[in-house]
User: Which sequence fits this backbone?
C-alpha cells in the first residue's frame, strides 16, 4: 500500500518527437508522478533558416541520427486493404501481416491528427498548420484504387476527394511528351504540416515548464539511464532512443536526403513516380521555407549530402510541380539535409520489458521504430506508451 503512494521516478531516453510527446503526456496523465527526467545526447535546435547577417546558421546542425530534426514534416496517410476487401484474400501471409500493421498505424495516425489539428487551431505558435495535402501517383497500387471520394483518409471530415479523370488529363497535358511519367491517380484532402524545429522546441519548453528535468548525455546502454536518477526508489525507464541504442536486430535506418529552400509553397504535395522515386514539397509553417524531397534508402549510412541526388531532387521538383518555380535557379537553397529514419521491421516497438540491474528488476517501456512516420504517429504512440508505463508501475506488475 505504501509503495503504491510513493511516486515513480521516470526517465525517458530520447528527446525526439516520440520521447518529447511521451514525456509531456506522462506529466499530464500521471500528475502524481511528475518526477520525470529526459536524458538524450541531442535536444531540439533551431532551423538553419535562423541565420546571422552573413547567412551563417545560428546553431550547428543536428546529427543525421537525430531524425526529428530532419523530417518535413507532414501527415500523409498510408492506405491499406482491410480483410473485407476482395483483394485481401489473394495476399500472402507476410503481405496480410503488413496490412494489419498499417491498420494499427492508421488508428495511431487518426488519434494524432485530432491532437495536431487542435494544437494548430489553439496554439499556432507550435508551428503546426492545417493545410491541403495533394498526392499524384504514376503507378497506383490496389490500396489507392480502392479509395473513393468521401472516405475517411487522413481524419474525420478531411474532405477527401479522388481527383477526376478530366482533372488528371489536364495535369498530364503539361507533360504530354513524357508518356512514362503520366499521373494515373491523384487525391486531395485536409492534413497538417509541422515546422519541426519550432514544434520540438515547444514540446521541450512545455515539459520544462511543467517541472520536467533534462540531462544531456550520450549513453552506451539503456542501463546507464539509471545513473541520472541515482536517488530513485521506483525507477521506470522509457526507451525512445530512435536508432541510437541499437542491439535490436529488427532496427534499420532509411536514409533521407532533402533540400530546404526559402521559397514558400502552399500545400503539402507528393508525387510517387513510376520508377519508384519520390518527389515532394513540404512547406514549413511560420515562414520556415519548404522541404524538397526526398530519398528513401534502406541501410545507406552516408551522412553527407550527395550532389547528384540534390540535382535530381531539384530537377524533379521543377518538373513535377511546375506551379512552384519554373527553373532550378529560382530556388533559394538554405541547406542540404541528410537524416536517418529509425525504421523497425514489423512496426514500432511499444512494449514492456525488464531491465535486470544489480539484482533489481526495473520496468522498461519501449517506444521506438517509427521509421518515416514519427510525427504523424506521435500522440497515438505516446498514449500507448503511457498506458504501459501506468501498468508497469502498479505494484502487482512488479516481480
Ligand atoms: C528526410 C526525412 C523526412 C521525414 N518526414 C517525415 C514526415 O513528413 N512525417 C513524419 O511523421 N515523419 C517523418 N520523418 C520521420 C521522423 O523524423 C521520425 O520518425 C521521428 O523523428 C522519430 O522520432 P524518435 O523520437 O523516435 O527518434 P529521434 O528523433 O531520432 O530521437 C532520438 C533521440 O534519442 C537520443 N539518443 C539516441 N541514442 C542515444 C544515446 N546513445 N544516448 C543518449 N541519447 C540518445 C537522441 O539524441 C534523440 O534525442 C522523416 C524523416 C526523415 C529523415
Ligand atoms: C532501446 O532502443 C533501441 C533503439 O534505439 C533498441 O535497439 C534497443 O534494443 C532498446 N533497448 C533494450 C534494452 O531493449
Assistant:
Amino acid at each position: 500500500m505504501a509503495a503504491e503512494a510513493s511516486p515513480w521516478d521516470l526517465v525517458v531516453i530520447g528527446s525526439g518527437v516520440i520521447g518529447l510527446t511521451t514525456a509531456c503526456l506522462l506529466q499530464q496523465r500521471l500528475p502524481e508522478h511528475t518526477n520525470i527526467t529526459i536524458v538524450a545526447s541531442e535536444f531540439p535546435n533551431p532551423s538553419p533558416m535562423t541565420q546571422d547577417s552573413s547567412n551563417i546558421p545560428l546553431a550547428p546542425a543536428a546529427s543525421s541520427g537525430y531524425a526529428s530534426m530532419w523530417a518535413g514534416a507532414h501527415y500523409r496517410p498510408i492506405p491499406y486493404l482491410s480483410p473485407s476487401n476482395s483483394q485481401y484474400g489473394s495476399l500472402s501471409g507476410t503481405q496480410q501481416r503488413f496490412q494489419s500493421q498499417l491498420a494499427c498505424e492508421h488508428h495511431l495516425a487518426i488519434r494524432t491528427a485530432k491532437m495536431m489539428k487542435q494544437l494548430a487551431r489553439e496554439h499556432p505558435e507550435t508551428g503546426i498548420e492545417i493545410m491541403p495535402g495533394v498526392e499524384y501517383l504514376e503507378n497506383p497500387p490496389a490500396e489507392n484504387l480502392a479509395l473513393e471520394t468521401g472516405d475517411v483518409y487522413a481524419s474525420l471530415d478531411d474532405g477527401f476527394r479522388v481527383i477526376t479523370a478530366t482533372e488528371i488529363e489536364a495535369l498530364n497535358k503539361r507533360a504530354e511528351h513524357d508518356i512514362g511519367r503520366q499521373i494515373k491517380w491523384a487525391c486531395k484532402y485536409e492534413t497538417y504540416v509541422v515546422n519541426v524545429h519550432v514544434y520540438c522546441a515547444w514540446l521541450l519548453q512545455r515539459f520544462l515548464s511543467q517541472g520536467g528535468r533534462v540531462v544531456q548525455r550520450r549513453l552506451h546502454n539503456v542501463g546507464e539511464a539509471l545513473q541520472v536518477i541515482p536517488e530513485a526508489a521506483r525507477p521506470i525507464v522509457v526507451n525512445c532512443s530512435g536508432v541510437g541504442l541499437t542491439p535490436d536486430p529488427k532496427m534499420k535506418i532509411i536514409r533521407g536526403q532533402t533540400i530546404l529552400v526559402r521559397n514558400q509553397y502552399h500545400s503539402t504535395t507528393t508525387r510517387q513516380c513510376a520508377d519508384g522515386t519520390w518527389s515532394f514539397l513540404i512547406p514549413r509553417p511560420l515562414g520556415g521555407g519548404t522541404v524538397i524531397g526526398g530519398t528513401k534508402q534502406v541501410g545507406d549510412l552516408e551522412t553527407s549530402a550527395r550532389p547528384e541526388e540534390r540535382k535530381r531532387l531539384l530537377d524533379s521538383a521543377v518538373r513535377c510541380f511546375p506551379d512552384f518555380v519554373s527553373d532550378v535557379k529560382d530556388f533559394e537553397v538554405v541547406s542540404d539535409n541528410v537524416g536517418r529514419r529509425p525504421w523497425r521491421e514489423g512496426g514500432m516497438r511499444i512494449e514492456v520489458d525488464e531491465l535486470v540491474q544489480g539484482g533489481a528488476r526495473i520496468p522498461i517501456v519501449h517506444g521506438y521504430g517509427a521509421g518515416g512516420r514519427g510525427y504523424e504517429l506521435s500522440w497515438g504512440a505516446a498514449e500507448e506508451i503511457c498506458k504501459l508505463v501506468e501498468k508497469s508501475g502498479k505494484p502487482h506488475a512488479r516481480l
The two ends are 16 Å apart (CA to CA).
